[in-house]
Each structure stands twice: as structure tokens, then as C-alpha cells.
Amino acid sequence: MKTIEVDGIKVRIQIWDTAGQERYQTITKQYYRRAQGIFLVYDISSERSYQHIVKWASDVDEYAPDGVQKSLIGNKADEEHKRQVPKEQGLQVSGGCCVPPPPRGQDPSCTPSLASLSLSPLCTRDPNSPPAALPLSGTPKPPQSLPA
Ligand SMILES: Nc1nc2c(ncn2[C@@H]2O[C@H](COP(=O)(O)OP(=O)(O)OP(=O)(O)O)[C@@H](O)[C@H]2O)c(=O)[nH]1
């Protein structure tokens, strides 16, 4: 649980890290029901973890509330030399949003806090307004410009 300020509004965020293992899936799905935002995280050094995103996204479509904000995150971006999933591939599905990796030498555990900042503004939006990010299902958009 953490309180942060977004555009002058204090927002209290509660983040649940659900288990990835198959045997916990019955429990995991129960967390989707009341979620206002969902991070789908894959490991950029594992093509397999990226392929699993399709399954996670379909679970979210099935169990999470309609219109829930979704954000795709390529984790371990500090390990660029081990990358198996091209950046463009992740950007295509996410609609072009890119959270930079932590600076070299910095604890990678700071990544989730950067991620939460990227999602929380979406959660404070009017739920009737169109989502800022591309839904993970549907036709991928061409990648937008990459940060330098
Ligand atoms: N280099 C680097 N390592 C990371 C990063 N994020 C997590 N790790 C490491 O990756 C390993 C797996 O992390 P977990 O948080 O257990 O992964 P998980 O997907 O939550 O695992 P399950 O919940 O069991 O599915 C750990 O050794 C972490 O320290 C990152 O951004 N960079």
C-alpha cells in the first residue's frame, strides 16, 4: 500500500503480486474481480514469458471488470544483453508506452514503483473516457517513437 500524488491528486495504491504458477490460478483469478488496473509483466530475457502474456491477457479479459486499465511491462530491462524479446514487439502490444529501465547499478526492485507511476494516472481517469493504452486484445498498433 502506498500513497502517491498524480496531477495534484493523492492516490492510494494497493498492489497485489499474484503467483505465476499454474497451481495457484484458481486463487489468482479471484484478485482480478476488484482490480482497477492490471500490470502484465514479462521478462525481456525470456521469449517464453512473453508468450505467456497472451494467456494472462485472456484471463484478465475473462475475470477482470470491463474496461479495467491494463499495462504491459517488459521487466529486467537492466539486462539488455540477455534480451530475447525485441523492444518493438513489446511496444506493438502495449500501444507504445515505455517505462525506462532503472539506471545502471541501481536496485532493479525500483522497477515496480516506476511501473505503478505509469499505471496510476490511468486509474484516476474517468472510467467512461477511452483508455489511454491499447487494450491487449485486438489489433496491435504500429510502434510509436522510442525514447532516445
Ligand atoms: N536483473 C533483474 N532481475 C529481476 C528484476 N525483477 C526481478 N528480478 C529477479 O528475477 C527473479 C524472479 O523474480 P520474482 O519476483 O520471483 O518473479 P515472479 O514472476 O514474481 O515469480 P512468480 O510469482 O513465482 O511467478 C528474482 O531473482 C528477482 O530478483 C529486474 O527488473 N531485473
Automatic annotation (TrEMBL):
<keyword id="KW-0449">Lipoprotein</keyword>
<dbReference type="GO" id="GO:0016020">
    <property type="term" value="C:membrane"/>
</dbReference>
<comment type="similarity">
    <text>Belongs to the small GTPase superfamily. Rab family.</text>
</comment>
<dbReference type="InterPro" id="IPR001806">
    <property type="entry name" value="Small_GTPase"/>
</dbReference>
<feature type="compositionally biased region" description="Low complexity">
    <location>
        <begin position="108"/>
        <end position="124"/>
    </location>
</feature>
<dbReference type="InterPro" id="IPR027417">
    <property type="entry name" value="P-loop_NTPase"/>
</dbReference>
<dbReference type="InterPro" id="IPR050305">
    <property type="entry name" value="Small_GTPase_Rab"/>
</dbReference>
<dbReference type="GO" id="GO:0003925">
    <property type="term" value="F:G protein activity"/>
</dbReference>
<dbReference type="Pfam" id="PF00071">
    <property type="entry name" value="Ras"/>
</dbReference>
<keyword id="KW-0636">Prenylation</keyword>
<protein>
    <recommendedName>
        <fullName>small monomeric GTPase</fullName>
        <ecNumber>3.6.5.2</ecNumber>
    </recommendedName>
</protein>
<dbReference type="GO" id="GO:0005525">
    <property type="term" value="F:GTP binding"/>
</dbReference>
<dbReference type="InterPro" id="IPR005225">
    <property type="entry name" value="Small_GTP-bd"/>
</dbReference>
<keyword id="KW-0342">GTP-binding</keyword>
<feature type="region of interest" description="Disordered">
    <location>
        <begin position="74"/>
        <end position="148"/>
    </location>
</feature>
<feature type="compositionally biased region" description="Basic and acidic residues">
    <location>
        <begin position="76"/>
        <end position="86"/>
    </location>
</feature>
<keyword id="KW-0547">Nucleotide-binding</keyword>
